[in-house]
């Protein structure tokens, strides 16, 4: 009888899962996929009503709408590209945004098309001479000292015309403060391309999953236990008891009950609407770079997956206006505030995280770092390779 009681107690105490994964975004889903392939059992939870984190798409008027902002997959890491393409095929989408400054249109990134639109120059030598002329005035103004703020740094990199029309207003809307109040290190470099090339990314590979990102997430989490509408912090002790180890992708300060204070973020508000036209703006991304326009950009979701004449197969389109605002509790945190105060605060939380033996922190919120999708997957694959070997 005593032996039977011991066995029953042992069974109750045994964990049901090898890993509890908090957050069903790309980091958590990728780790879960690799863990399953290694024979581990995972439970993936998310407080939202859906899986996929910020890459989740809603189907609206027959169009995959990027609910949490535009997501364009791009990488030069062949292993990451092969990994995602082994799960779902990707299309040939190439990111070529356009800037709208008070009705004037400019190609991005800054390239010969931009310089022709800005100054009427036609050759690289003419463009270089124009840029260098404007930069020399800034160098003279600085008189050898380092830039003190983002405005001075940007002027030093690209000169007055590009800064005032294509950087200043957009940046001030994005960060909610004047460029003279922002640290110089936010803009370490502003690449100028003296070729006629509107491809925004330098990466070897880019595209969108055929059929949308939900299909990628479904493949990553196929056969894995998941729970949505499940708040880790509302049921922390019960959920923690279910697994031997935790992969945590939520806000790191929340994990430690804001012991040292709250980290700051910028967030984005979206106004999404259906338009009774097959083609609203002719491009997936148009940035509004003047300070007076309240939104930062308009996304037309159809153009991520429909090309050429296929755009007109659907008589409707869906657009989203994006408004950058200060983050408040209850809002979705998007962009870490890169200043000395928050960097110091994060360092205190990271010191705690580094001493955890059964909790692993990964992703943009847990690491207080903005990650594109490919680096997020790469980090998750690296953690899986290290952790699952042991």
Structural overview:
- This protein has 390 residues and is an alpha/beta fold.
- Among the domains are: 2-56 and 210-260 and 337-387, Rossmann fold (3-Layer(aba) Sandwich); 113-186, no CATH class.
- Helix content is 34%, strand content 19%.
- The protein has 12 helices and 16 strands.
- The protein has a 7-stranded mixed beta sheet with strand order 7-6-12-13-14-11-15. The chain has a 5-stranded parallel beta sheet with strand order 9-2-1-10-16, covered by helices on one side. A two-stranded antiparallel sheet has the order 3-4.
- A hairpin with a 2-residue loop joins strand 3 (57-60) and strand 4 (63-66).
- Helix 5 packs antiparallel against helix 6 (150-158).
- The longest helix is centred in the middle third of the chain and has 19 residues, at 124-142.
- The radius of gyration is 24 Å and the shape is globular.
- The two termini are 37 Å apart.
**Which sheet architecture does the biggest sheet show?**
7 strands, mixed
CATH superfamily of the domain at 2-56 and 210-260 and 337-387: NAD(P)-binding Rossmann-like Domain
Give a count of the beta strands, DSSP E runs of length 2 or more.
16
CATH top level of the domain at 2-56 and 210-260 and 337-387? Alpha Beta
Please name the CATH topology of the domain at 2-56 and 210-260 and 337-387.
Answer: Rossmann fold
Helix content: 25-40%
- CATH architecture identity of the domain at 2-56 and 210-260 and 337-387: 3-Layer(aba) Sandwich
Measured between the Cα atoms of the first and last residue, the distance is: 37 Å
Mean pLDDT figure: 94
């Amino acid at each position: 009888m005593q032996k039977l009681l011991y066995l029953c107690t042992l069974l109750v105490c045994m964990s049901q899962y090898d890993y509890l994964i908090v957050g069903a975004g790309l980091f958590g889903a990728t780790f879960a996929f690799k863990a399953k392939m290694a024979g581990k059992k995972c439970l993936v939870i998310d407080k939202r009503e859906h899986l996929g984190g910020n890459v989740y798409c809603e189907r609206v008027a027959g169009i995959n709408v990027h609910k949490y902002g535009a997501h364009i997959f791009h990488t030069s890491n062949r292993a990451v590209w092969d990994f995602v393409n082994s799960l779902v095929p990707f299309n040939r989408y190439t990111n070529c945004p356009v800037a709208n400054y008070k009705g004037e249109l400019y190609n991005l990134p800054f390239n010969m098309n931009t310089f022709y639109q800005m100054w009427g120059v036609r050759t690289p030598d003419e463009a270089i001479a124009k840029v260098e002329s404007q930069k020399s005035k800034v160098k003279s103004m600085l008189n050898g000292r380092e830039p003190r703020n983002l405005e001075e740094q940007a002027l030093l990199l690209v000169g007055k015309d590009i800064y005032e029309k294509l950087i200043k207003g957009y940046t001030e809307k994005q960060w909610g403060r004047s460029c003279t109040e922002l640290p110089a290190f936010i803009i370490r470099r502003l690449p100028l391309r003296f070729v006629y090339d509107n491809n925004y990314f330098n990466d070897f590979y880019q595209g969108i999953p055929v059929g949308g990102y939900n299909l990628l997430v479904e493949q990553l989490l196929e056969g894995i236990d998941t729970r949505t509408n499940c708040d880790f912090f509302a049921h922390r002790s019960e959920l923690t008891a279910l697994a031997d180890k935790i992969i945590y992708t939520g806000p790191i300060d929340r994990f430690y009950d804001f012991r040292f204070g709250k980290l700051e973020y910028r967030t984005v508000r979206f106004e999404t609407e259906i338009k009774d036209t097959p083609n609203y703006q002719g491009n997936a991304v148009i940035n509004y770079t003047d300070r007076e326009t309240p939104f930062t950009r308009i996304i037309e979701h159809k153009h991520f997956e429909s090309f050429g004449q296929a755009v007109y197969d659907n008589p409707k389109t869906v657009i989203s206006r994006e408004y950058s605002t200060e983050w408040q509790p209850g809002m979705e945190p998007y962009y870490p505030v890169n200043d000395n105060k928050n960097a110091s605060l994060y360092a205190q939380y990271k010191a705690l995280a580094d001493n955890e033996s059964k909790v692993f922190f990964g992703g943009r919120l847990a690491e207080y770092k903005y990650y594109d999708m490919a680096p997020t997957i790469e980090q998750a694959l690296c953690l899986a390779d290290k952790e699952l070997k042991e």
